[in-house]
Write a structure and sequence with these properties.
This protein has 595 residues and is of the alpha+beta class. It is globular, with a radius of gyration of 24 Å. The strands form six sheets. Strands 5, 12, 13, 14, 15, 16, 17, 18, 19, 20 and 21 form an eleven-stranded mixed sheet that branches. The chain has a four-stranded antiparallel sheet with strand order 8-9-11-10. A two-stranded antiparallel sheet has the order 1-2. The two termini are 27 Å apart. The protein has 17 helices and 23 strands. Helices cover 25% and strands 23% of the residues. It has a domain of 229 residues: Roll (Dipeptide-binding Protein, domain 3).
Length: 595
């Protein structure tokens, strides 16, 4: 089998990921994927550029040249796509069927912050600004311009003439209401995991201008405004209960129906502002008449849907399935780096079993895990450098290295702890994952087996989101005193800055505010928190140095083991061109159908 390649359009060196064969022979495949790089704006903040991936058909030489040789053509892909459309016609294709790996918890506007939470929602609900998947730069969507007034204030110029899908006008007041709704601490939506050091509020200062303010200096305020969706103020005022399952946005598609447990749909919006605007986002005008997102948790089912032609796009195939696609005539696999990581978080301060307070015990647990082996088992992944993100992230610490795999040393540490009176015989680590995480069952089983080699007893569980989610948030910790859980899960950090994940993963949660940004942390250290909040308010080189110090601090305390930096893949109908960034948004205006 000949390897399929993807080349970096901007000229930097590509990274080769070797996928181990599980077919019982010595063959292996490889796919070239691109390193995550970050753009820096005038304020010193960095943002992931989102390298583009497009569907690749082996005999289609033009697609190959686009991906490997013509950097200028690629970098200006959006402009070229739209400048070539003299007059817009109705969609030329029927329904785009996407096989997704999980059903949304809801379709509220806040769900646009993370694609995996509500896949496809950005087709219906748009944001003020977004990270362009082609250039990696921030661009206007519902805002035509913005400026930073000071360390805690942004001012946005709102696009004129835009209407929500219910026919009401998108005014500055409506935009401000939506921002306040999404970021409200009282409503405590899950977007709060990406909240900043201060409370975010918005106010319309005239008919076309909205001012967004953080109560504390926030270098990442622009980034946060790429996350929350803008939805109808009329719906929020008159029928807020419908907001969660009947989204009313401004996007190129209008919400259709949500058949719980099966799918949700959307229909082409003939009144979308982007059909007449010369600065609309996307690589194409909407080509599909309808969208249908079908919920299929089983990897094999999603693969079969694309293979049979039932779906035109399937999320997150395995490395083996991607290699099989290299020889398929009817479908392809497209891959690209992401800002998503796989990690194991070991209970610490809050309601954890006292045995986990001993640093030798914690180190022994981490030394027992073969991180490279887990990354290989995951597939389409690389070994993190001992921290939850790639080089180029603000705060990345070159001195930090992956935890070594040394079960013999782990057993020595446990023996030392036992000799000093620590009751290590009570150790029984519950290794638990969520069933919507790709390939989670073999991963938690492998971690359990590795811990067993060091003499650590384990209990293995794979749970539904309904079981799993409450257990990994502070509100549920008190229900399980003396717990010994290692949560194995995936999480993203699209900001290009370690402040976001340090805040959400390591800051002590407020017991009186169980829905705050640190609600999933299990760690409480007042010295760390003081340094963290100073770092969160800092800018430029000072911020970078402060974050580097904190990254090393948490690494040395064996709180979270970084297991893999994930690439993401999709099966697509052969000939389809699919453009996405490191945040892996599935948006129809970035999908050019096969002819």
């Amino acid at each position: 089998m000949q390897p399929r390649e993807r080349c970096e359009p901007h000229g930097s060196e590509s990274r080769i990921t070797d996928f181990p064969s599980r077919r019982g022979d010595s063959s292996s495949g490889r796919v070239v994927v691109c390193p995550t790089r970050f753009n820096t704006n005038s304020k010193g903040a960095r943002f992931p550029p989102g390298p583009t991936r497009r569907g690749f058909k082996r005999e289609n030489q033009m697609n190959y040249l686009r991906s490997c040789g013509l950097g200028m053509l690629w970098a200006t892909g959006s402009a070229l796509a739209f400048s070539g459309v003299a007059a817009y016609a109705e969609p030329t294709h029927g329904t785009l069927v996407v096989a997704v790996n999980q059903e949304p918890q809801d379709l509220a506007a806040q769900g646009t912050y993370k694609e995996i939470n509500a896949t496809g929602l950005r087709n219906v609900v748009e944001t003020l600004i977004a990270v362009d998947p082609v250039s990696g730069e921030m661009r206007g969507v519902l805002a035509t311009g913005w400026e930073r007034i000071d360390g805690s204030t942004l001012r946005f110029t709102i696009r004129q003439g835009v209407k929500f899908h219910d026919g009401t006008d998108m005014t500055a007041e409506a935009v401000a209401k939506s921002i306040n709704w999404v970021w409200s601490p009282e409503r405590a939506f899950t977007i709060q995991e990406y909240a900043g050091p201060g409370e975010i509020t918005a106010n319309a200062i005239d008919e076309s201008t909205v001012e967004v303010v953080s109560s504390k200096a926030d270098p990442l305020l622009e980034f946060r405004m790429t996350l929350g969706g803008i939805s109808s103020a009329a719906q929020l005022d008159n029928s807020p209960e419908e907001h969660f399952d009947t989204p009313v946005g401004t996007g190129p598609y209008v919400f259709g129906e949500w058949a719980k447990g099966q799918y949700w749909t959307a229909t082409h919006n003939p009144d979308w502002w982007g059909l007449s605007a010369d600065d609309a986002y996307g690589t194409t005008k909407p080509a599909y008449s309808d969208l249908k997102f079908m919920f299929r948790a089983e990897d094999a089912t999603r693969v079969a849907m694309v293979q049979s032609g039932e779906a035109q796009l399937g999320m997150f195939p395995s490395a083996d399935e991607c290699m099989r696609a290299a020889n398929a005539a009817d479908y392809d696999c497209v891959t690209g780096p992401s800002t998503t990581y796989l990690y194991g978080r070991l209970d610490h301060s809050l309601h954890a079993h006292p045995v986990l307070a001993d640093p030798r015990v914690r180190e022994a647990v981490f030394l027992s895990i073969d991180i490279a082996g887990i990354a290989d088992l995951q597939g389409m992944a690389s070994v993190p450098q001992g921290q939850l993100g790639p080089k180029g992230t603000i705060g990345f610490n070159d001195a930090v290295q992956p935890y070594t795999y040394d079960p013999e040393r782990a057993m020595e540490l446990l023996a030392e702890a036992k000799a000093n009176g620590v009751d290590v015989d009570v150790l029984n680590i519950e290794v638990v994952g969520r069933d919507t995480t790709p390939r989670i069952k073999p991963i938690v089983e492998a971690i359990g087996a590795m811990l067993n080699i060091s003499g650590i007893e384990t209990t293995i569980k794979v749970q539904t989101p309904q079981e799993f989610n409450p257990r990994v948030r502070i509100a549920g910790y008190a229900d399980e005193p003396d717990r010994q859980m290692m949560q194995v899960h995936v999480k993203g950090n699209p900001s290009g800055d370690y402040g976001l994940l340090l805040h959400s993963n390591y800051a002590c949660p407020d017991i009186s505010d169980p829905k705050g940004p640190s609600r999933s942390s299990v760690y409480c250290d007042s010295d760390f928190d003081a340094k963290l909040f100073e770092a969160l308010a800092s800018f430029g080189d000072d911020r970078n140095e402060r974050m580097k110090e904190l990254v090393e601090y948490v690494h040395d305390r064996h709180l979270i083991v970084p297991l893999a930096l994930l690439d993401r893949g999709y099966l697509v109908k052969a000939g389809t061109e699919f453009t996405f960034g490191t945040d892996h948004r599935i948006q129809a205006v970035y999908l050019i159908p096969a002819e």
